Amino acid sequence: MGKVLELAQIDLDGAAASPSAAIDQAGQLLVQAGAVNPEYVQFMHDREAMMSTYMGSYLAIPHGTNEGKDTILASGLSFVRYDEPIDWGGNEVRFVVGIAGKDGGHMDVLSKIALVFSDDSKVDALLAAKTPQQVLDILGDVNS
Q: CB under 8 Å, gap of 24 or more: what pairs does 45-51 form?
């Protein structure tokens, strides 16, 4: 398996003002990376309609439904940071990590992301990161 997160999939200047727009932005990065077909983004919206993907620590992890698994070409992540918090069902979100897991490969990646975001110092470092490379260095384990 290749890397699930490349520098081109990290956007530190997210401009979305709603969960829906943020899902579109995260999904588009997955499409551009070749991880998913464009149809996958709608499955991400479908998942959000069923259950919030807010995880705590300013983090939401939108991902598709089981019905959308055929639109996944390869496991991949997108990472978008927002200077202005998004109201995500009453919670402040500053990070949206889009995820697509081929053949169940996303569970390992999800646990690695959860570990990073359970560490307040790493969350602070992600908020302060100036470059995509700094973000990749903090999240680096997702690629191993």
A: 45/20, 48/19, 48/20, 48/23
Which are the catalytic amino acids? 63
Residue 112: how many CB atoms within 10 A of its CB?
18
In 3D space, the residue among 105, 37, 3, 103 whose CA is nearest the CA of residue 79 turns out to be: 3
Whole-number Å distance between alpha carbons of 79 and 93: 12
Within a domain: 143: no
Tokens linked to 109: 């990646």
pTM of the model: 0.95
What residues pair up with 54 in beta bridges, in sequence order? 60
Q: Cα(56)–Cα(116) distance, rounded to whole angstroms?
A: 12
> pLDDT (tens digit, 9 = 90+) per residue, 92-130?
999 999 999 888 777 888 888 999 999 999 999 999 999
Does any domain span residue 139? Answer: no
CATH code of residue 123? 3.40.930.10
